[in-house]
Design brief:
Blueprint lengths: L3 E5 L12 H11 L3 E4 L8 H11 L2 E4 L1 E4 L5 E6 L2 H18 L8 H6 L4 E5 L6 H14 L3 E5 L7 H14 L3 E4 L11 H12 L21 H7 L4 H13 L33
Parallel strand pairs: 1-2, 2-3, 6-7, 7-8
Antiparallel strand pairs: 4-5, 5-6
Helix pairs in contact: 1-2
């Protein structure tokens, strides 16, 4: 069973993730997970540490980002090449400039302008009319690079929710893919996550209520466990590796490029006069 976890949040998503990239990659390596997609919220801040952890473990890093749009959509995006990565960084810069400190304001129209070369996974909540509209937009914008996440929420009628999401995806010609929406690397980190949630929401552990995660299931799971949890969606499970194979971009491609110099006739490009008293 081959599986890649494509929805992983690190502690660089401030007060949302509760594990470091080092912990996440080391745990994934032990479990036999083939790749991790790091998708911090409206940010690429954790990508450098993730690259270091990827090098240390030999596990593949899929560069990504979660875009929480002002329109109400949440989309996981992964650049397939260097040009797409550049467009994604410009998109995030636009959102940060609009939102100011600790905020990022982006709209779907902004994503449209930077969508070339990006694989996108819609992260829906309920299979309702809003979700149907969002799926239609995904098809229009991303074509065959559009996917929709099937993820357990551990709420009543969860299996029915997955079934209806899958049917909506077929109707709108969007492929399904399994994600686990990972916030920490192992179950024991749930307590820390509860604490940072209290800090983020300005409340106490006694009063945080449903602001905290409703279940302690948001940790990495081995491929065999993911197959057991999603027995009816084997194709969606296989598509995790399909996305990994489509995302050939690597941060190793980002080497420094010396800028072209404007040369003055009669002077060498490295020449600054060594004559005393002259610069």
């Amino acid at each position: 069973m081959r599986y890649a976890e494509l929805q992983v949040t690190t502690h660089f998503s401030f007060l949302r993730g509760a594990s470091s990239a080092e912990e996440l990659f080391a745990t994934a390596k032990l479990m036999g997970i083939e790749a991790l997609g790091i998708v911090d919220r409206n940010s690429l801040a954790g990508i450098v540490r993730a690259l270091e952890a990827s090098r240390a473990t030999g596990l593949r890093l899929v560069v990504g980002c979660r875009l929480d749009l002002a329109d109400g959509m949440s989309i996981l995006v992964y650049p397939t090449d260097r040009a797409a990565y550049s467009r994604l960084t410009r998109l995030l810069t636009l959102g940060k400039n609009r939102g100011g400190k600790a905020n990022c304001i982006l709209h779907l129209d902004d994503v449209v302008l930077c969508s070339e070369g990006l694989i996108a996974v819609l992260v829906p909540d309920l299979p309702d009319d809003t979700c149907a509209v969002q799926l239609r937009k995904m098809t229009e914008i991303f074509g065959d690079r559009a996917y929709v996440s099937l993820c357990l929420r551990r709420r009543p009628n969860d299996q029915l929710r997955l079934h209806e999401l899958s049917n909506l995806a077929v109707k709108h010609r969007v492929k399904t893919v399994i994600t686990n929406d990972v916030l920490f690397h192992e179950p024991g980190r749930r307590q820390l996550h509860d604490v940072v949630t209290c800090i983020r929401t300005g409340t106490t552990i006694d009063d945080v209520g449903f602001e905290r995660e409703r279940h302690a299931d948001r940790y990495l799971k081995p491929p065999e466990e993911m197959a057991r949890l999603f027995p009816r969606y084997a194709e969606a499970l296989k598509r995790t590796m399909e996305i990994v194979e489509r995302c050939r971009f690597s941060l190793e491609e980002l080497v420094y490029q010396y800028p072209e110099e404007a040369l003055i006739p009669g002077l060498r490009n490295s020449r600054w006069s060594t004559t005393p008293g002259k610069a």
